[in-house]
Amino acid sequence: MASSINLAVIPGDGIGQEVVAQGLKVLNAVLPQDVKLETKEYDLGAQRWHRTGETLPDAELEALKGHDAILLGAIGDPSVPSGVLERGLLLKLRFAFDHFINLRPSKLFPNTATPLAGSPEIDFVVVREGTEGPYTGNGGSLRTGTEHEVATEVSLNTAFGVERVVRDAFERAAARPRKKLTLVHKNNVLVYAGHLWKNTFDKVAAEYPQVTTDYLHVDAATIFFVTQPERFDVIVTDNLFGDILTDLAAAISGGIGLAASGNINPTGAFPSMFEPVHGTAPDIAGQGKADPTATVLSVALLLRHLGYEAQAVRIEDAVSADLAERDGTARTTDEIGDALAVRVAG
Ligand code: ATP
Ligand code: MG
Predict the structure, then answer these.
(1) Ligand closest to the CA atom of residue 283
(2) Which of 23, 144, 227, 316 is most buried, by CB atoms within 10 Å?
């Protein structure tokens, strides 16, 4: 646990600016007096691209490497062609910093709306692989634009890449009370990748006899997310399945205003990046309507990653208490941030 935190902040676009301000407010309030917080803001995203045509220049990529962690709001704008900022900024960062763990916890807080029937117990974590699968840009198009166009999108799976994410997931499962890990794949159809994932999973499982293991095809997993979410503790899965499952997870556990995530490099070789799952929400940007809770919970993940477990728990407890007292009265982004900051300062 460092006695100082040197944080890079990328507020980004739309509500990113608004929610990050609240995240920082709560971070400042929760940190002990003797922990020095230094922040440096990076102007990256749609506005920067419009002004300069740049997405993530090498000099800034280098500068980002010097931080302990990164807090990101949201990046994008309908005015920027699709893919420019995703590939040129977000995926570039993820690959450059080797963020091979995409961590997305789902917990149903008290007094929180879920579209599921009854009062389901939801408290699980998805460990999504972050640097392989079909997201590596391997593929191409032949006879482009003709009626005989052929498009390929290769799913890349390496023994090294699969084993490191599977190991990380076992570590996380072993540290939780229920100690249960579910592998989600589709190894009856995607046989080559599925074989590598299942074999690796079974091999590593032998080293963790205290962890109960389970395997589900991804299609079955979507059913159980809705009908029996309580069966899940930790889930490990590939990049694409994880992308889809975590949106479903957010939908069943209080919605997009609460979903936090971390793009993590557990080796510490590069800074990890924490961000709300939601996007820039142009429809409500600038109106003070955005719920900053997802960003505040992302700050908790950031603190836990840096070794500030007690402070992470304080934030999660504050969110839980705040949600329990919500009565439907509309509050501004700023008011929610203030309320959480007061609670964590205790
Ligand atoms: P992007 O392209 O950046 O992902 P988007 O248009 O897909 O943006 P999201 O940000 O993912 O939009 O939001 C989807 C919907 O959820 C929008 O209607 C938005 O207003 C709402 N929303 C997203 N985040 C929040 C939030 N923090 N608080 C309240 N509503 C939100
Ligand atoms: Mg979106």
Answers:
(1) 1
(2) 23
Distance 74 CA to ligand 2 centre (A): 10
Instruction: Give the closest residue (by CA) to ligand 1 atom 11.
Output: 279
Structure tokens at 134: 């079909």
User: For ligand 1, atom 14, which residue shows the shortest CA distance?
Assistant: 281
Last residue of a domain, one of 207, 229, 253: 253
How far is ligand 1, taken at its centre, from the CA of residue 277, in Å?
Answer: 9
Q: Which ligand sits closest to the CA of 259? A: 1
Look up the domain containing 267 and give its range. 1-100+259-346
Supply the pTM of this predicted model.
0.94
Q: Note the ipTM here.
A: 0.94
Rg, Å, the chain Cα set: 20
Q: How many domains does the chain have?
A: 2
Q: In the chain, which residues have pLDDT < 50?
A: none
* Residue 288 maps to a domain: yes
Does residue 109 form part of some domain?
no
Residues 220 and 154 in one domain: yes
Residue nearest to atom 29 of ligand 1 (CA): 290
DSSP 8-state symbol, 80: S
Give tens-digit pLDDT for 101-135.
Answer: 999 999 998 888 899 988 899 999 999 999 999 98
CATH number of the domain at 8, please: 3.40.718.10
Residue 36: active-site member: no
For the chain, where are the alpha helices, taking DSSP H only? Answer: 15-30, 46-52, 58-65, 84-85, 92-96, 159-174, 191-205, 218-227, 239-252, 293-305, 309-325, 333-345
